[in-house]
């Protein structure tokens, strides 16, 4: 059954692969034509000089001229860029796009959920959260804050083209039919809960924020929601949002708010944050990729963020909201194939990279770096997790599954309560006597 399923899909992916190849060859022709004068002048130009030139051009595309610049205490530079000049509008299909200044529609149950959250916050003493750069200023109306990409950021990537993208070999696991050895091969480990088998039009969660340690700069630790459509072949559609620590992407060990999207299983399309064309930001207060402050402490104050992703049934755009007050923006429906209709699976939880650099399991932490058994104040949690159903209402997910590759390294435990609705604790330390 599995094989037949894959076979049927392979035609679709062959066609989309062809389109991708065509597009890629067009764009590489364009870049080689642009780069021709430089390379003719000096035929002995070195590989690293080429990479510097590419990086320079890439930065010029990414970093739009700002109306105002704010220097964050964490070393980030936040550019306030005119909303109409953001990277999204480099996309040929967005040339005549009219920016949606607000969603037409919020899923039903959002208001109810808000009042519930306030009481949940009182009950658990978790506190609201902001971004560090707010200490140094704000972006004016009509602009959006964009974390400036530095030359070092681009040069750290394996190639300029791959900057801001996940590794294409990274296929998220497929809980019910995955082969365990295929998953460990990729080196990614998860501790997640998921629902599948229905049509989903969004998802929501409140996630407490930590600053997990990563052992190697090319490893990361993240906690997020996945909105998935299609199969786990070459054509997976995914919208992702949460927090992450990723030294390779950001050049430090701080915890950052992020989004991601792809419509071809992380191959040619999509990226983190605003690092490619596609996502349209409308909010002038929250910068994607900016560090989150403060973070939760072990046995200390707990800080959490809530994220809601949902589809506007009228326009077909997928929106994202941070907290109760910040609608960040939207992914136009045309970016996707399967997600143009609905998602087929929702996942919530943590993911790390285990590169086994010293032939032992990585010590990269997930969540708080502590196992779920330790509970509130010590372990990472997702609470009030919900899906948006076919009648555009927020609902508790039904038939929740849990998944982890090696529960002795990272684990997950779900539960239900009044204030927290459907919730789970997750995470772990990585290498330990039971996870050598
Ligand atoms: C944008 O509008 C111009 C002028 O109306 C039109 O020629 C062009 O085809 C449009 N482009 C797209 C991508 O819709
Ligand atoms: C990030 O953490 C690693 C250890 O996990 C450390 O070696 C490195 O210096 C840190 N990097 C920065 C920029 O703080």
Give an overview in words.
InterPro entries: Glutamic_endopeptidase, Neprosin, Neprosin_propep. Residues 108-117 have a biased composition (Basic and acidic residues). By secondary structure, the protein is an alpha+beta fold. It has helices spanning 2-41, 47-62, 110-124, 151-156, 180-186, 247-250, and strands at residues 68-71, 77-82, 126-127, 130-131, 143-147, 188-200, 202-208, 221-229, 237-245, 256-262, 271-272, 280-281, 292-293, 302-311, 318-322, 326-331, 343-353, 380-388, 394-395, 401-404, 411-417, 421-427. It has one domain. 20% of the residues lie in helices and 30% in strands. The strands form four sheets. Strands 3, 7, 12, 14, 15, 16, 18, 19, 21 and 22 form a ten-stranded mixed sheet that branches. A hairpin with a 3-residue loop joins strand 21 (411-417) and strand 22. The longest helix has 40 residues, at 2-41. Bound molecules: 2-acetamido-2-deoxy-beta-D-glucopyranose (2 copies). Residues 93, 95-96 line the site of one 2-acetamido-2-deoxy-beta-D-glucopyranose (NAG).
Give the SSE layout:
Elements: H1 2-41, H2 47-62, E1 68-71, E2 77-82, H3 110-124, E3 126-127, E4 130-131, E5 143-147, H4 151-156, H5 180-186, E6 188-200, E7 202-208, E8 221-229, E9 237-245, H6 247-250, E10 256-262, E11 271-272, E12 280-281, E13 292-293, E14 302-311, E15 318-322, E16 326-331, E17 343-353, E18 380-388, E19 394-395, E20 401-404, E21 411-417, E22 421-427
Parallel strand pairs: 3-14
Antiparallel strand pairs: 1-2, 2-5, 4-13, 6-17, 6-20, 7-14, 7-18, 8-9, 8-17, 9-10, 10-11, 12-16, 14-15, 15-16, 18-19, 18-22, 21-22
Bound molecules: 2-acetamido-2-deoxy-beta-D-glucopyranose (2 copies).
């Amino acid at each position: 059954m599995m094989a037949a399923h894959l076979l049927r899909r392979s035609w679709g992916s062959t066609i989309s692969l062809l389109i991708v190849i065509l597009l890629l060859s067009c764009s590489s022709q364009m870049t080689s034509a642009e780069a021709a004068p430089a390379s003719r002048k000096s035929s002995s130009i070195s590989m690293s000089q080429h990479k510097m030139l590419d990086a320079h051009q890439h930065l010029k595309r990414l970093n739009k001229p700002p109306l105002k610049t704010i220097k964050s205490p964490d070393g980030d530079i936040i550019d306030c860029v005119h909303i109409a000049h953001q990277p999204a509008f480099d996309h040929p299909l967005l040339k005549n796009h009219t920016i949606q200044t607000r969603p037409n529609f919020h899923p039903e149950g959002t208001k109810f959920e808000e009042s519930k959250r306030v009481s949940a916050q009182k009950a658990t003493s978790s506190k609201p959260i902001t971004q560090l750069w707010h200490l140094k200023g704000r972006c004016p109306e009509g602009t959006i804050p964009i974390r400036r990409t530095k030359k070092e950021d681009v040069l750290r990537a394996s190639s300029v083209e791959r900057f801001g993208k996940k590794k294409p070999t990274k296929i998220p696991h497929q809980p019910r039919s995955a082969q365990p050895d295929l998953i460990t091969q990729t080196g990614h480990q998860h501790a997640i809960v998921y629902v599948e088998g229905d049509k989903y039009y969004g998802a929501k969660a409140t996630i407490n924020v930590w600053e997990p340690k990563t052992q190697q700069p090319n490893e990361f630790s993240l906690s997020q929601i996945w909105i998935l459509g299609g199969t786990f072949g070459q054509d997976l559609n995914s919208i992702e949002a949460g927090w992450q620590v990723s030294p390779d992407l950001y050049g430090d060990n701080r915890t950052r708010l992020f989004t991601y999207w792809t419509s071809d299983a992380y191959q040619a399309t999509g990226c983190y944050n605003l690092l490619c064309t596609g996502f349209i930001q409308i909010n002038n207060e929250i910068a994607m990729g900016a560090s989150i402050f403060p973070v939760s402490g072990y046995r200390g104050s707990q800080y959490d963020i809530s994220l809601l992703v949902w589809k506007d049934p009228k326009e077909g755009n997928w929106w994202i909201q941070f907290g109760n007050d910040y609608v960040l923006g939207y992914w136009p429906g045309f970016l996707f194939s399967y997600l143009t209709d609905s998602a087929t699976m929702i996942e919530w939880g943590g993911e790390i990279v285990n590169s086994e650099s010293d032939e032992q399991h990585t010590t990269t932490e997930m969540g708080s770096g502590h196992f779920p058994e330790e509970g509130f104040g010590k372990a990472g949690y997702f609470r009030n997790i919900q899906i948006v159903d076919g009648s555009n209402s927020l609902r508790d997910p039904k038939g929740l599954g849990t998944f982890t590759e090696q529960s002795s390294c990272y684990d997950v435990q779900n539960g239900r309560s009044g204030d927290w609705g459907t919730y789970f604790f997750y995470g772990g330390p990585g290498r330990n006597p039971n996870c050598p």
